[in-house]
Amino acid sequence: MTGESPPGLPQPRETPTNAPMLRAWREEGALALQRCPACAKVIYYPRVVCPHCWSDRLNWFRASGAGRVVSFTRVHRGLPAPFQAEAPIVLAEIALAEGASMIARIVTPDAGAVRSGMAVRLVPPGDAPRFPLPTFMPA
Ligand SMILES: [Zn+2]
């Protein structure tokens, strides 16, 4: 799966708030998350203020990339054209080891084997350029 993003794949819009996360993914295949030094909570998606205590002094760090599937869906139809050849696409809520949760894609040759509670990890850094956002695979 290593390689460039397929042509026409939707790309995220970079903003000053999400740029550290998008650049960590694009350049290192790493998952960058924010942590609030005031309340110690880990935050995803990227924000300007902590949603728990409203502190505006959030720090970025590199997450392990490990997590577990909370819930998921397999999308077979109605996908944007660039994704249709890859159907079914698995989209999951993933509880990250660091404590936050995120919605992300899980890539696997066996979409039918994805289960709630399953351990997942980020795809290898060499595969990251193929995916516009942090993407996981079975651990
Ligand atoms: Zn906080």
CATH class identity: Mainly Beta
Mean pLDDT, all residues:
94
How far apart the termini lie comes to 16 Å
Ions and ligands = zinc ion
Q: Tell me the helix content.
A: 10-25%
* Total number of helices: 2
Describe, in plain words, how this protein is organized in 3D.
This protein has 139 residues and is mainly β. It has a single domain (19-138), classed as OB fold (Dihydrolipoamide Acetyltransferase, E2P), CATH 2.40.50. Helix content is 10%, strand content 30%. The protein is built from 2 helices and 8 strands. The protein has helices at residues 19-28, 81-84, and strands at residues 32-35, 42-43, 59-62, 66-75, 89-96, 101-106, 119-122, 135-138. The strands form 2 sheets. It has a 5-stranded mixed barrel with strand order 4-5-6-8-7. A 3-stranded antiparallel sheet has the order 2-1-3. The longest helix has 10 residues, at 19-28. It is globular. The model has no long low-confidence stretch (mean pLDDT 94).
